[in-house]
Amino acid sequence: MSDADLLALSVRLARAAGEAILAVRVAGFDVLAKDDTSPVTAADHAAEAVILAGLRAATPEIPVIAEEEMAAGREPDTDQEFWLIDPLDGTREFAMGSDEFTVNVGLVRGGRPVLGATYVPGSDEMFSGIVGVGAWKQDAAGHRAIATRAVPAAGAVVLGSRHHGSDTRMEAWLAGRHVADVVNMGSALKFLRLAEGAADWYPRFGRTMEWDTAAPQAVLEAAGGAVLCADGSALGYGKPGWDNPSFFCFGRIGDR
């Protein structure tokens, strides 16, 4: 399959998973705790089942790393190419009744995210991108290309985590920078708002996992942005334990 075909598959499955999540919301659900104390619901499992079935049927040669399978101890062997899936990024927000949650389907090659689809079921926004080719958004207004923006003269709009926004490391990082506003929100939405040019920076100091970031990072980089570690290197994939270090998202690499 070409990258365009793989992206179309990602988009289709992310949307189908989002529909499964909304069906669980309508039916009602319980919130349970995983071994790491993070929340999980029937919606997480339903969405992951949709994505796994679709990927394994269409691309059986590509391993899949998926959040809930990993939590259950099922970790496949990976090579240079693998899918990274977060079926419901922002379970806390979903459980609270917020629409700030996403479905993330990303493809990694050689330690780098190369394409991804991130769907926002609550607002019916689909973001997708192929690094080096372009990024797109589909919503009620139609399908269109998106791109990051230069920081406005009034200052940067900075996005923070809904649950880690008061981190003192954020305050230290912002000191001395020309900032117009700081807005906290949940899930991968922060990457997406940078990708479509609605915000400028997203520093992340709290814990994240690779499946949280692969798809939205691909979208952001495809739109002209960057996701960097503290040493200035690009955030990579296939790390031991699948944990991410702190990272910093920029709409334009020169505006940091």
Brief rundown of the structure:
The protein has 256 residues and is α+β, with helices and mostly antiparallel strands. Helix content is 31%, strand content 29%.
From the structure above, extract its key features.
Fructose-1,6-Bisphosphatase, Chain A, domain 1, single chain, seven-stranded mixed sheet, 2 domains, 256 residues, D-Maltodextrin-Binding Protein, domain 2, globular, alpha+beta, 14 strands, three-stranded antiparallel sheet
Structure description:
This protein is α+β, with helices and mostly antiparallel strands. It has two domains: about 140 residues, Fructose-1,6-Bisphosphatase, subunit A, domain 1 (Fructose-1,6-Bisphosphatase, Chain A, domain 1), CATH 3.30.540.10; about 100 residues, D-Maltodextrin-Binding Protein, domain 2 (3-Layer(aba) Sandwich), CATH 3.40.190. It is about 30% helix and about 30% strand. The strands form four sheets. A seven-stranded mixed beta sheet has the order 3-4-5-6-7-8-9. It has a three-stranded antiparallel beta sheet with strand order 12-14-13, covered by helices on one side. Helix 1 runs antiparallel to helix 2 and helix 6 runs parallel beside helix 7. The radius of gyration is 17 Å and the shape is globular. The termini are far apart.
